[in-house]
Design goal:
- The protein is built from two helices and eleven strands, in the order H-E-E-E-E-E-E-E-E-E-E-E-H.
- By secondary structure, the chain is α+β, with helices and mostly antiparallel strands.
Length: about 150
């Protein structure tokens, strides 16, 4: 039987660490689509192809380089749910939410809320609702309303 040599440890440990890193979510690159306000200070998001029980994540950046993350989802009854990608109690940790079926799960405290209840708000580990209007097949957000959530991310 061959002996275990130190070089084997130098090969095994990095492979193990990289595997765990990617199983835990990796860099989460490309998860948030970037949006910016138009000349009128409004953000228009096309939701015509957003299916029921689906969620899309967005990253708002304005001219002042203020960044705010939020998500838009359509619950199983077809109602659009819009909220900041942060909860009140630990927003600055920057972990946000993930979707698991019809649930939005807080990545910090690992609690879940039904997608249908997102617009209702709450506090704690629940997503903070973002005021919005639905015009045809678009969600319209005011820059001022989005920037009210900037406190959650800076």
């Amino acid at each position: 039987m061959k002996r275990f040599r130190p070089i084997h440890g130098f090969l095994i440990v990095p492979v193990f660490v990289v595997t765990i890193f990617f199983l835990a979510g990796g860099f989460r690159l490309g998860e948030h689509k970037r949006v910016s306000p138009d000349a009128d200070g409004k953000v228009h998001i096309d939701v015509s192809d957003l299916g029921k029980s689906k969620v899309r994540f967005y990253r708002f950046i304005n001219r002042g380089n203020q960044e705010v993350k939020f998500f838009v989802g359509r619950d199983k009854s077809g109602v659009l749910q819009v909220a900041f990608d942060a909860g009140e109690t630990h927003a600055k940790v920057g972990r946000g939410f993930r979707q698991e079926g019809d649930w939005m799960v807080d990545n910090k405290c690992d609690t879940a809320v039904h997608l249908e209840e997102v617009n209702e708000g709450g506090g704690g580990c629940r997503p903070v609702p973002l005021p919005h209007r639905v015009v045809g097949q678009q969600v319209v957000l005011e820059e001022g309303d989005i920037l009210k959530g900037w406190r959650l991310f800076n």
